[in-house]
Amino acid sequence: MRPGFLLGEIANGLRRNASMVVSVVLVTMVSLFFLGIGLLAQAQVSTAKGFWYDRVQVSIFLCTPDATEVASCSEGAVTPEQREQIAADLESLDPLVTEYFYESNEEAYERFREQFRNSPVLDSIPQEAIPESYRVNLSDPTRYEVIRAAFEQAPGVESVEDQREVVDKLFTFLGVLSVGALALAVAMVVCAVLLISTTIRLTAWSRRRETAIKRMVGASAFSIHLPFILETVIATVAGAGLAVALLWATVRYGITGFLSELLAGESGLISLVGPRDLWLITPFLVGGALLLAVVTAWLALHRHVRV
């Protein structure tokens, strides 16, 4: 099949079925948008867990040079002797303390930069402002107050925190958002499959004479089916492009822009997904849409176009 003739066939098909093509574009856009929102919500859970997982444990944050307003940090940054004493006190609380590990300032700062990579004030936070810490696992998390009482006023300790309830609510919300978006995406994908199949059937019926002539002159099944498939692919690519653009706008202006400022307040510190996370899932969104479109179109052609 000559490229010029094939392009002409595709252009005529898109023009004659403009309303159906627009419908495929819109349904594809909406379904991929909701699918993308669901995947980004799952990525947000993973991103948040990287920062918040330690907060499900008990975190003993040690003094930084600037924490002198705290009574236990009046001498400035934690000293090696104070650090060793805190570790010894943790050892003495066995079996309540099942495990603990120390995170240095360098490790904390590296993790901080990774988790808050999309924060607008990331570069304004100096490394020395990020506290060292001990992360503590408890055999009975309900006995958190024992750890608080033992270490809250200890020399070298800035604060003791356990945000289990906050984290649980956050992850529950994100999980519900993810499941809801994926459910809507599945429903829209079903609509897209039905719409593509209907579009192929109507297009095949409107071109039944052309198809009959092609069969009479010995055209292969592939050459007859190819224009239909490419028209579907073009509509799907257009819908996928619009969905990615809409997702980018949502991430850029809604999440890392407005939502980041709303949740972070003056500090600007909030661990959120960003454009990089979107670009990671984009190949899967577009590739999956194209594969679904080609398979659906091919099956519909075998059913409605006899060669």
Structure explained in plain terms:
One of its GO terms (biological process) is cell division. It is a multi-pass membrane protein. The chain is of the alpha+beta class and 307 residues long. It has 2 domains: 3-51 and 167-304, no CATH class; 58-161, Alpha-Beta Plaits (2-Layer Sandwich). The chain is built from 9 helices and 4 strands; from the N terminus they run ααβαβαβαβαααα. It has helices at residues 3-16, 18-56, 80-92, 105-115, 144-151, 164-206, 208-216, 221-264, 275-304, and strands spanning 58-62, 97-103, 133-138, 157-161. Strands 2-3-1-4 form a 4-stranded antiparallel sheet, sandwiched between helices. The two termini are 16 Å apart. Residues 264-269 have low confidence and may be disordered.
What's the shape? elongated
- Helix content class: 55-70%
Q: What is the count of helical runs? A: 9
- Taken together, the total number of domains comes to 2
* Span of the ends, CA to CA: 16 Å
- Largest sheet entry: 4 strands, antiparallel
- Percent in strands: 5-15%
Q: Unreliable runs, pLDDT <50, ≥5 residues?
A: 264-269
Rg from C-alpha positions? Answer: 29 Å
**Mean pLDDT, all residues:** 79
How would you spell out the order of helices and strands? HHEHEHEHEHHHH
**Number of DSSP-assigned strands:** 4
Structural class: alpha+beta
Strand order, sheet with most strands? 2-3-1-4
